[in-house]
Amino acid sequence: QLGACTLHSAIGLRVKNPDGNHYDQDDNNGSSTVSNDSDLEYFRRLSCIIVDEMSMMGQSLYSDFELQLRKKTRRDDRFGAISIVLCGDFIQLPPVCDKPLYEAKSLFYDLFNNDFPVCMSLRTSMRAASDDPLGPLQQRLRDKGLMDPRDAALVNGRVGQPIPNDATNVMYAVPQNKQRTSLIARHMFAA
């Protein structure tokens, strides 16, 4: 049990709407300030914060995160002198209503690269490694972004196949809510 939580709740950031405004406009620029000495002590004792799913962190959230840590620690150092570890994969989901961290033609890009001079890249996907033949197909899609005719035939051959009754952790992709609702009802009331 890690005791993990969202970045917003961990450091007291408010969520922004698609216009870039905070949903509730009642206090100091979308963040809570250090309210007492115990908060200050807590944040000053932190040595490291690990952020997963970094692809979903955009430039605006990154800036808010950095500024909020300086406020919480009452330190002028980047991130309030707390070490930050970003984990994840930039090829996954991009940020919502924000520019990605890796957008190269921005002043922000240089700042981001200066904040994180060390990058470790893991090259082997462990999630799909044992899923033959779909694991290698996923890796080819990731590396090249294209499917060859054999890959397309493999994927299309799985469409519409019955799912065994004893199958667990089955994921469905359906185009309409009424189909999703039907699937949920069928599985909730199946005996």
Can you give a write-up of this model?
The longest helix has 15 residues. The chain starts with 6 loop residues before the first helix and ends with a helix. Strand 1, helix 3 and strand 2 form a beta-alpha-beta unit. By secondary structure, the protein is mainly α. A two-stranded parallel ribbon has the order 1-2. About 5% of the residues have low confidence.
Extended strand count: 2
Rounded to an integer in angstroms, the radius of gyration calculated over CA atoms is: 22 Å
Could you describe the largest sheet, including whether it forms a barrel?
A: 2 strands, parallel
Uncertain spans: 25-34
Tell me the strand order in the biggest sheet: 1-2
| N-C termini distance | 32 Å
Q: Helical stretch count?
A: 7
The global form is extended
Structural class call reads mainly alpha
Q: Tell me the helix content.
A: 25-40%
Pattern of helices and strands? HHEHEHHHH
Arithmetic mean of pLDDT = 77
Strand content: under 5%
How do the helices and strands line up, and which of them pair or pack?
Elements (H helix, E strand, L loop, with lengths): L6 H5 L25 H9 L2 E4 L7 H15 L9 E4 L20 H9 L18 H11 L4 H10 L18 H12 L3
Parallel strand pairs: 1-2
